[in-house]
Amino acid sequence: MPGYQGTQQNLQWLAPRLASWGFVVINVGTLTLGDDPASRGRQISAAGTQLLSLGSAVGNPIYGKVNGTLGAAGHSMGGGGVMVALRDDSRFKAGVPLAPYNPSQNFSGVTDPTFFMTCQSDPVAHANTYALPWYNSMTRAEKLFVEVPGDHLCPMTGYGNKAKQGKWIVSFFSRWLYGDTRFSPFLCGAAREADKNNPSLVTRWQDTCPF
After folding, report:
1. Catalytic site residues?
2. Of the candidates 15, 35, 117, 194, which lies 20 to 30 Å from 168 by C-alpha distance?
């Protein structure tokens, strides 16, 4: 789910990366470019409903390939929408809000695994205002918080280190949607240390390890 005034192109890099690891992906476009985070959350839920419907439709290319376990990723207001979907729709089992924005919201009730990726120099949705307070309030969820260099655009197509960002997101969804513990070391073990301790790549890292 893209952010304010954003389109599917904003996260175009991520959809095929996830699909290449076996996920069935919908790259969502919003009803209008100005939809607020609550609306984006409802649209994420609607996309999940459509995906499940297509997965049970005989003759559809994804028939029989959808197991009913849903995850969501989104940027800015789309990241705020991801948090709404995790809070309000029990079908979603993991989320990746990217530089999320959603004012005056309480997400302490979210219990699903959540990976917050934020941008160090973000003037719009700085982690200290949104992602970190949400992270700290979610006391019953497995969590990962990674801040990387860059401004509010750092998760978008064409910005930041997409090889590393993609590795973390694929690993997180694989761990929590597939239950594949082989991916845990990239987030929670020795294999993560080179990323975590590289200041040109990561400026802050928090987690609830061991997963």
Report:
1. 76, 122, 152
2. 35
